[in-house]
Amino acid sequence: MNMTSKKEGQSLVSVRGLSKSFGAHQVLRNIDLDVHEGEVVALLGSSGSGKTTLLRCINLLEMPDYGEIEIAGNPIFKCSGEGQTRSSISQKQVNALRSRVGMVFQHFNLFPHMSVLGNVMEGPRTVLKEKPAENRERALDYLAKVGMSDFAERRPDRLSGGQKQRVSIARALNMRPKVMLFDEPTSALDPELVGEVLETMMTLAKEGMTMIVVTHELGFALEVADRVVFLNEGCVEADGPPGDVLLHPENERVQSFVNRFHATAELMRPLLQES
Ligand SMILES: Nc1ncnc2c1ncn2[C@@H]1O[C@H](COP(=O)(O)OP(=O)(O)OP(=O)(O)O)[C@@H](O)[C@H]1O
Ligand SMILES: [Mg+2]
């Protein structure tokens, strides 16, 4: 993808000096991150490095301690340091923000008592107060886009993991977000279902959706992402084009992270060939 034009575009997500602790444990340390319009950023790092916490701070599911966050030029959080007053936004503005920042979780989080269509229509119905007919029409369009048209009336418990995840992508899209955050969207799936979800995400990326994707799929990061951001113990250790960061890692920690993946792939190879 064309990095230059995206870099020159407007910064849709801007994070400055973001810090977050849980008790005495500092999980995010002075994070700077810019994501430009149409950019796909793969967020990588070992377990516990702070990836989920960073995504949750970006849509204020988690309240940061210090730093600044702007979405599409709108400040949503600002606190310059200890003892300083935080200026964060009102609940109404939080709702408006959430409607512009779509989030897809590892465990789908669909409403079990609603049909697939009901799930996709719920956000626009309750948060955006949209007219039912328009909401329904768009929901059906998004279900078609993720290949789930035939399942509109089904309950989530009668879907496969891959199907559930595609529904949750449609549900997030139906809020017409400016940016989509994905937190390990394929890691709870059986291996044979990973492809269909990655394919859906690839389509979104090609259409120009701005995306931050926490993933352990290095192939996806290499093929689809414009940039890889590598977190280690709450700090950004590397930030650059996927080929540079992953194929020629200069940073020691990125190197050992990538090597671990190669080692696992090598270990798995004979097992996969046997089955
Ligand atoms: N609500 C919480 N309360 C206390 N500690 C938390 C909370 N959420 C996360 N943590 C801690 O913060 C650290 C970072 O967690 P986070 O979930 O952001 O990591 P991650 O990079 O997403 O890891 P994984 O790859 O395992 O999902 C971990 O040590 C975790 O135990
Ligand atoms: Mg996580």
Give a brief description.
41% of the residues lie in helices and 25% in strands. The chain has 275 residues and is an alpha/beta fold.
Shape: globular
Main beta sheet strand tally, sense and closure: 6 strands, mixed
Residue fraction in strands? 25-35%
Structural class: alpha/beta
User: How are helices and strands ordered from N to C?
Assistant: HEEEHEEEHEHHHEHEHEEHH
Strand order across the largest sheet: 7-8-9-3-10-11
CATH architecture: 3-Layer(aba) Sandwich
Poorly predicted parts: 1-5
State the domain count.
1
Q: Helix tally?
A: 10
CATH homology-level superfamily? P-loop containing nucleotide triphosphate hydrolases
Report, as a whole number of angstroms, the end-to-end distance.
36 Å
